[in-house]
Task: inverse folding
């Protein structure tokens, strides 16, 4: 965990948002999936690997009141708090943790993960993540995961990733989560290159 934290803190300390390949001015696909699900304004929501994403900004503007942002990088979360300003930042719970070491103390109704899951490359890491998400999501809850597709990059930020097809991701999660829908799309980076992503929403299996 220490080496990973150092890696990501260095990145967020030395690069601006528009120098990060995963940067999105508007996380439209995540918002489209989110809006397709029945999620009341007071629902507990967690953005896993939220970093400097503006997903939290969008939810706050829409009136969601129980938002948690988790990231391994303390620097990334500090940058997000600064962007939001003290008033809005105080309305969010910020958690610095490697997702593999996260020990949730509550249940969430919506679990959002854009580009964290695919960094878990060992069977034990993947199984641990799925077990964690299953425990952390409430019985009527939902999960949305965005990963590199089978046509996406094999590495990101110098680290290896797992590429997923719809069938592979669905089967990987099948014991705990039922697929609702999936799409693939090209994410245009700030450098005007393209990365193919797979986005899927799931309902927790009680």
Result:
């Amino acid at each position: 965990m220490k080496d990973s934290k150092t890696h990501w803190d260095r990145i967020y300390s030395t690069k601006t948002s528009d120098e990060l390949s995963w940067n999105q001015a508007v996380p439209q696909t995540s918002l489209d999936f989110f809006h397709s699900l029945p999620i009341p304004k007071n629902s507990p929501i967690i953005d896993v690997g939220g970093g400097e994403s503006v997903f939290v900004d969008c939810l706050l503007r829409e009136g969601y009141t129980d938002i948690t942002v988790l990231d391994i990088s303390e620097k990334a979360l500090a940058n997000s708090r600064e962007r939001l300003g003290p008033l809005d930042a105080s309305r969010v719970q910020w958690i610095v943790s490697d997702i593999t070491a996260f020990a949730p103390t509550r249940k969430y109704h919506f679990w959002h993960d854009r580009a964290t899951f695919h960094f878990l490359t060992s069977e034990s890491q993947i199984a641990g993540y799925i077990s964690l998400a299953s425990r952390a999501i409430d019985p009527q809850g939902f999960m949305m995961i965005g990963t590199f597709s089978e046509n996406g990059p094999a590495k990101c930020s110098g680290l290896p990733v797992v590429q997923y097809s719809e069938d592979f991701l669905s089967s990987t999660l099948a014991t705990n989560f039922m697929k609702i829908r999936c799409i693939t799309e090209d994410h245009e980076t700030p450098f005007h290159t393209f990365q193919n992503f797979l986005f899927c929403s799931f309902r927790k299996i009680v």
The chain has a mean pLDDT of 93. The longest helix spans residues 123-136. The chain has one domain: 2-18+26-204.
